[in-house]
Amino acid sequence: MKACIRDTAATVTAFSTAVVLAACGAGAGTDSDGEEGPRIGLLLPDATTARWEAQDRPLLEKRIEELCDTCVVESTNAKGDVALQQEQMDSMVTKGVDAIVLVAVDARSLGPAVTKAHEAGIPVIAYDRLAEGPISGYVSFDGVEVGRLQGRALLTAMGDKVPGAQIVMMNGDPSDPNAKAFEKGALSVLSGKVRIGKAYDTPQWRAETAHMNMSGALAALGADAIDGVYAANDGLAGGSIAALKANKVSPLPPVTGQDAELSALRRIVGGEQYMTVFKPFGPEAAAGGAMAVAAARGQSLDPVATGEVPTRGGEAVAGVLLTPVSVTVDNIAQTVVKDGLHTVRQICTPELRAACDKAGLI
Q: What is the rounded distance in angstroms from the CA atom of residue 4 to the CA atom of residue 2?
């Protein structure tokens, strides 16, 4: 099986999407001849961001199983530790898996591990974050557009305080290429319209670091001088809001977010967080799973891709870039609830019943 899977010269470029995505045999883990099926390594970055274990991993595993019932997925989580993820990559190479789906803790640091996998004939699919090194494919959302959505929403929420409003920027992990894309998109909208009183990078996207930094911003700028908070994701939004509340800031300034976490949606309904960005995990996992299966079989990724994406090294690879969606209290029902990410029952706790009724959720 491996000789067939690793033979990139035999890559099939003329297959239709339906053929590329067809199921690959009978019996989980083995094909009809009793041989072991393709093995796919799934490397997740951390346990602090809820989506990885709660959404992406089960959705990816389900999609891979749908497309290839003999495929075996070996999943690991680096828990925010770059060295641990490097070891996990090395382990996957040593085991001789047929493809790797990688969400890099640190895109640059994982570059040599990606190169090692490539040299061993193992294709690497960069999932959600564009890793360095010779990746074979990339699946994510348009990160610059995420930042634009956040920036536009923040301007809308601050209303007549713009222009001249002062904001705090709570950016993401500087080692995550997505964080820079989010920041770039946000600044393209905010620059010239607001003053940035303080801007922070947040290693490993830790909410507690956002809490500490927001407390520092309040001490430096004063509670009355913060008109809005750009928070790159919902974890940072939660940490920032907790610091604002601990310092008795009232009313709270509008705060952005991302990932449509359940806790964030509750904050939005309750009036503590203004918006989040919904990135439908189903389509992303579907594309990532399809790429992983095709790569593990030694097939072309082109039928799965929607185009080409430049890598950090400058070369273009097969890619899928999906469109994010801005979510406020006004469209929760039409977005995350309609998509099945969270139910009204989950969002509308007893404490939020009145707010949910006002928002038209119940």
A: 5
